Amino acid sequence: MKADRVNPGAQRSARPWSLDIFGRFRSHSQREWNPCFDSVPTGRRTFRACHLSLVRKIDYDPLPFTQGRITAFGLEKKFHDIDLFDGYPRAETARNFKYEIFRPDTRTLRCSDRNVQTVKALDSLHLRVFTPDENADSPEQVGDLIVIGSEEAPHGSIPHAVECDHNVHVRLEDIDLFTSNCFGFIESDCDGSVYYRCRIDRRSAASDFVKRGDPRALPGRGRLSQH
């Protein structure tokens, strides 16, 4: 397979992050990849006996989630009012997907994911999330941190960060994944795949490429899925 030349340093892609892109890069230089959401599908390619160790870090810009703080509840906690932190996607990009609530002191999950019926942007920094299954005894509190899915992809996007499809003996090595739309790593109809020292991790404020009003509460969303 012919290898494309990639210059050292951070790289940015306006295409979906998948093995279709991944498999072309064969150098061992240190690298970071920030795929953006404005992306279109690519065609399927099959890779055999590829050793992929070029990309060290994967992140998204804009992020596939936004983050804020609960400031008020509706009657019986049927809706939550949220102030978004600076540096995160704006309220109009929020979607009723993966709504998670964290304790502000320990930054650990307060409760299970909440079922969200609708999301309403009050303005670019304020969000109202409608949660029909909650009641006055639900554990979330004013001041809790929240994370909710965000989407800014006018031309569509691929749901998973790294996707292997119909590949044979592919090895992914030393990759830190900081976020994803859904799954971090997913493969379908592959044989002999190796994921060696691939981590899904929370990005620290010191290494983040955008200054944010609050450090990311959410570790890299996702997991390995095989089917």
Task: Describe this structure as you would to a colleague.
The chain starts with 8 loop residues before the first strand and ends with a strand. The chain folds into two domains: 1-64 and 151-227; 66-149, Beta Barrel (Thrombin, subunit H), CATH 2.40.10. The protein is mainly β. The protein is 2% helix and 30% strand. The protein has a six-stranded antiparallel beta sheet with strand order 7-10-5-6-9-8, with no helix packed on it. It has a five-stranded parallel beta sheet with strand order 1-2-4-13-16, with no helix packed on it. The protein has a three-stranded parallel beta sheet with strand order 3-12-15, with no helix packed on it. It has one helix and 17 strands.
Task: Reconstruct the topology from this structure.
Blueprint: E1 9-13, H1 19-22, E2 31-35, E3 51-52, E4 57-58, E5 65-73, E6 79-84, E7 100-102, E8 118-123, E9 126-130, E10 145-149, E11 162-165, E12 171-173, E13 176-177, E14 185-188, E15 194-196, E16 199-200, E17 224-226
Parallel strand pairs: 1-2, 2-4, 3-12, 4-13, 11-14, 12-15, 13-16, 14-17
Antiparallel strand pairs: 5-6, 5-10, 6-9, 7-10, 8-9
